[in-house]
UniProtKB/TrEMBL annotation:
GO cellular component: mitochondrial inner membrane; mitochondrial large ribosomal subunit
UniProt domain Nudix hydrolase: residue ranges: 135-276
Species per Swiss-Prot/TrEMBL record: Dreissena polymorpha
Record PROSITE patterns: NUDIX (PS51462)
Molecular function GO terms recorded: structural constituent of ribosome
Family designation: Belongs to the mitochondrion-specific ribosomal protein mL46 family.
The protein's name in its UniProt record: Large ribosomal subunit protein mL46
Superkingdom: Eukaryota
One Pfam entry name: NUDIX
Subcellular location: Mitochondrion
Amino acid sequence: MAAPLPVITFSRILNKNVLGFLRCGCRHASASAVSSNKKWQLHSAVCLQRYPRVIKPPTDLEQKYKEIMGRIELRKSLLSDYELDLVAEKHMFEKMKTMTDDEKKKLLAERSLLTMAEQLDVWTKELDNFKLADKLTDADKTGDETTVNQKLDEKLVLIVRQNWPGSETKCWTFPQGCRREGESMREAAERTLMTCCGEDVDAMFVGNAPCGYYQYQLPFRCKPDYGVKTFFFKANYTAGEVMPTDLISEWKWVRYDELPSYFQSTYLRRVRQFLIPS
C-alpha cells in the first residue's frame, strides 16, 4: 500500500507550482492594468541641425596627403587647353622668324586674340583683385550664440529653454510641443518648430518616423497626466533666423560636443543615440 505515495507527493508539488504561477500571473495582470490606466502626454521635439557651410582647415596629415596626390595627378595628367595653346603659340612664333613682314602682318591680323602671356597677365590681375571672405564672422568675434551665422565650419544644433505653464524649472532641451488631437507626430513637430522659433526659420524634416524617444514623469500637481512621452524628429536647417516667441526664454546654436554642458544626463543619453557627430 506504500506504492502510491510518490504519486501523491508529486501531485501536491505540481498543484503548488501551478497555484504559484497563477498568483504571479494575476499580480502581473493587475500591474499591467494599473500601468495602462496612466495618462501620458504625447510630445514632438525637433532636432534642428545646421550643417557646416565651409570646410575645416586640413590637418597636417590631410595636407601631406593632398600634396602627394597633387604631384601624382600632375604627373599623370594631360595638357590643359591653355597649355596646348601655349605650345601652339610657341610654334607659331618660331615659324614667324622665317616669314616676310607681309606674311607676319597677315598672320597677326587673322589672330585677333591676346597672346597666352597677355592672357596670363589678365588672369593674374583678376586673382589679385579677388578677396577671400573671412571664415570668422562678427558673431564669432562677439561670442553671439543666438545666431546661425557662426562657427561656419562646424555642425550646430538648436537648443532652447521653454516656458512651461506652472513650472519654474527651465531646462535646456530641443524645441518641444504637445501633440494636438488629429495631428500626426510629424505635423506636431512642424508646428512646434514654427510656434517656438517663428515663421522665419525654414527647415527640411528628415522622414515621417521619429528618430528617438524619451519619457519622464510629471509632478503630482499635473494630475491626471502621469507623464510625457517625447518623440524626436530630425530636421535640416535651410534658411532664416530664430524669432523667439513667448514659448521660449533662451536659445542657442551649439556644437554636439557642447551638449553635455546644457542637457541633463538622462536626456543626453537618449539624444546621443541618434546624433551623428561631424
